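Our collaborator T.R. sent over the components below with a one-line note: 'Predict the complex.' Nothing else. No constraints on interfaces, no templates requested, no preferences about which chain binds where. So this is a plain run: every listed entity goes in together, and whatever single assembly comes back becomes the starting point for the next discussion.
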Amino acid sequence: MVKVYSINNCPWCDKVKKYLQSRQVEYVECNIENDEAALAECQALTGDEAVPVITADGKEYVLGFDKGKIDVLLGL
Amino acid sequence: MSVYDFSAKTNSGEEKSLKDYAGKVLIIVNTASKCGFTPQYKVLQELYDKYQDKGLEILGFPCNQFGAQEPGSNSEVQQFCRRNYGVSFQIFEKGDVRGETAQPLFKYLTAEKGFKGFDKDHELSAILMDALKKNYPEYLEDDGIKWNFTKFLIDREGKVVERFEPTTSPSAMTAAIEKLL
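Returned assembly:
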């Protein structure tokens, strides 16, 4: 399951979500502003607290809206 | 000269001299509510909770100059910080932090500690650099603030000790803070 860690009204997060939608990728959005557990999970994954973060397996991830890296990560 | 020579308006419109912070270790940071780095508020608040008793104060300066990511009013900003990140440190009035219109405090801070590049290892450094080249090429020409969540560490005498770019998490500032406390 693809997860996108995000915050409210963040333009980079929105770009990632729109891109995944355009590529017909189903994802679950984890809002780290509203959900403390999601924030802890995201920090554990990346060692940071910046968003957006995209992951498929909870191990490998991409931080930021980088189409090339997202494509590689998700095999698009 | 030191940061004590400056004053700024708090979020509620009260003029505050930085002399009021004399003897404290300070983090001065420009902030925004809709930025990929916004969750740094959470970590800043954790530092504040941990070190406030030992003399740390954090001063947040909301600014809309980077990607228009702080469009709200002063009261909206305050509410956002408290509600989403439990911020209890001082938030100041929204204002400019770079260029001709920058608040004098930020002109001083950036003159004391110039830009030395984003953290090379951080995944967002390249993206940030691309965005600046594309949208704000003039921002790259000087030592001014480059983006939201640039942090300045100030010692107990009001001197600027170190500048941390947005690509450094506040958690990575712990050793430098402890050294000054």
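Summary for T.R.: Chain A touches chain B at residues 7-13, 32-34, 39, 48-52, 62-66 (CB under 8 Å).
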